[in-house]
Each structure stands twice: as structure tokens, then as C-alpha cells.
Amino acid sequence: MDTLQETRNNSDVGRQSQDTPFENGALIIGADFQGLGVARNLAQFGVPVVAVDPNFCIGRFSRHIRACHKCPPVTQAREFVDFLKDLCVREGLNGWVVYPTSDLAVCVLSQHRDELTPHYRIPTPPWEITRHVYDKKLTAQLAEQLDIPSPVSFFPQGEDELLDLELDYPVILKPTIKENFFPQTKLKAMRANDRDELLEAYRFMTSVIDPSEVMVQELIQGGAENLYSFCCLFADGQVKARLVAQRPRQHPMDFGNATTLAVTCEVPGLEDHAARFLKAAGYHGLAEVEFMYDPKRDIFKLLEVNPRTWGWHTLGAGAGVNFSGLLFQQMTDQRINANGYEKDVKWVRLLTDVAIVASEMRKGRLTLGQYVRSLRGKKEYAVCSLRDPLPFLVEVFLAPYFWYKRGF
């Protein structure tokens, strides 16, 4: 397939740099702010980085990404996998560690793992394991089997089953496989306050996805301030590195697709639930296990698992747990050294957080004083960096485009 190579392209991109002790490098799938964060984290370990992305991305302007190649969309799995194999041979990337930054990239890597393993080091588990965290229906079923608290969920196979459900309104409807619904609708979930709204939302969702992919779930009260995540590097049935964070702001605020503010904290009990789930699934690699605090029952309920670098993963590096670097060490058979993390460190996605804050202020749900206080203390920014300024400058210049693209 004829592809275009974009950005700076050093002639030694596939060879070991004299400045790094590593024989291999990293290939990042997706060079938006998540991929940019991976590259910056790996730069602390002296790891050379190449990225691939089908679209325009701010990562192409980073000093930490040696080359950014235009690739086929990940939705075209066959063409994308063939591209990766060709890129490996053409650029000398054999044995490089691959970092997916989207659920769809995780799916493709997992399903084509055997085909790609001779070329790259793939941290994503085989599909028989990954599917338990990729499909929310399987996630909910496994959590129930393990007696891990999770929202009450139903999986109706048609309107008749839907209308027969005994529900405590309001409820939410959401796809069991996000990538089959969100790209077309920009919606992560839909709220239903009564039977009529339930049927209307269900009919809309089933016009986009198969009825077997629609789940109806209890709505936990409290909003984003009750969202928490247990993040870890998991291997050999054990947590090798860990971090817990609260996520009080997201876009959109009600059913967020992207965190805009996260703060490290400590919540006893989350590690036990997360570790039991990941071990039972046979999982290994990086994982963000999402929980929501239910004030009615005073318990934390498991929502979903992200089997990849999550959007705000660079908070770990700011708090003392460089997840990207630790994964690289694990995949290259090096010793992992993780000694806890710093509490009350913040991560901010300025471009989207400013828009969310403005919206919350207009609605009277946030004051200027509360906003200022939320940013006090040690911070890690998603894109802004004095050592690597170009990506942020480009992002600010193109802010209207990015806001439109992300549904503001």
C-alpha cells in the first residue's frame, strides 16, 4: 500500500541511538495527546519513538517523536496490520514495543497478535483475554461472577424484553462496545428518566448498533466527582505498579468520554477489586480500572476497564510512576522498580478543561474560586510543556477545530 511519511524523518530512525542504552524503541499507534504523553514519558528512559496516525496530530511536532507516519485507519484492520508489518521491515523496527492509545487499536492488536508478534513486542493480551475488558457485557458478567460490586445491568434482546424490565428510574443506556457507537454519535451513554425516554433511546441506539450491544444500567448519583480509577501495570497475576486517582471533571460532564482533571489520591479497597478482576481475566499489561462511588450504598462499583494507556496516564509520571517506561522495561525483560506514588498531584487537559469549566460556570455548578482551588498544587499538563512547546502552540492555534471535532 502506498503511504505517506510525515514530519521529520531521521535516517537512523530504526537503529539504536548512541544516546540510549536500549536496543529497541517504541511504536505508538495514535499521536494525539495520549501518544504524545507516551513519547514524553519514554524520553525519560532514552527510548527512541516512532508514531503512526491516519490523521493530522499534534504529536508530529514533538521533539520526542522521531517520525510520524501516515497510516490507514485502524478501522481497516487488514490494511492497517499489513502497513505495520511493512513499516517494520522498511524502517528496521523489529522488536520494538507497540503502544495502542485507543480501544480499536487494542482490538486489532489483540486479534492479530500472532501475526504481529514476529515483528513487534505486543503488550496487548490475546483476544480470548482482551475481549473481557473490551466488551462491557463480558466485563459486567465477570464482575458479577467474582462478587465485585458493579452497577445493576440488563441486556435486553429486543423491545419486548426491554419493556418487561423492572427498572428504578432514571437509568442509562450505553453500548457494550464503545467503538461501534461513539464514533458515529459522539455519545458515550444516554439517560432515560421514564419508560418513554427508555424506548426512544433504545430505538435510536439500535438504529446504529445491534440490539445485542445495548446495555441498560442503573444511574449512580453524584456525577464526575464520584469517579475514581485504579491504574496499574499488571503481570503474573500481581500489581507491579499502581496509582489511584479521582476524576472530578470530564467532557461531557454527565457521561464523559475524556477526563479533563484528575487528582492522585488513596482509596482502600479498589486495588483488591481491580486485582481480582484482572487476575481472573488472565490479563497482563497496563490497565485503568474505573470505579464510581455509590453514595446510597457507600460502596465503589466497577464500571469498566481500559486495557491501554488511558488519556491522563502522564499523571503517573508526575506522581512518580512512569507507566510507559515501566511497560517498556517489562516488555524488554528488564527489572521493574516502582516505589509508590505522590498524593494530590493533578493532571489537567487545558484545551478541554477550559471549555468544561466555562460551561459549568454558566450552569452555576462551579465558581471561579472553586476552579482556582482545583488547580492549586503540583500539576502535570496533558500537552503544555516548556521542554517540548510546539505541540501545545499548535493545539492552541487550532483550538476551534479541535473543539468542533470533539463535539463542544
Q: Can you describe what's shown?
A:
By secondary structure, the chain is of the alpha/beta class. It has three domains: 120 residues, Rossmann fold; 67 residues, Dna Ligase, domain 1 (2-Layer Sandwich), CATH 3.30.1490; 183 residues, ATP-grasp fold, B domain (D-amino Acid Aminotransferase, Chain A, domain 1, 2-Layer Sandwich), CATH 3.30.470.20. Helix content is 35%, strand content 23%. Strands 15-14-11-12-13-16-17 form a seven-stranded mixed sheet. A six-stranded mixed sheet has the order 1-4-3-2-5-6. A hairpin with a 2-residue loop joins strand 11 and strand 12. Helix 5 packs across helix 6. The longest helix is centred in the first third of the chain and has 15 residues.
Task: Write out key terms for the chains shown.
408 residues, 7-stranded mixed β-sheet, single chain, 6-stranded mixed β-sheet, 17 strands, D-amino Acid Aminotransferase, Chain A, domain 1, Dna Ligase, domain 1, globular, Rossmann fold, alpha/beta, 35% helix
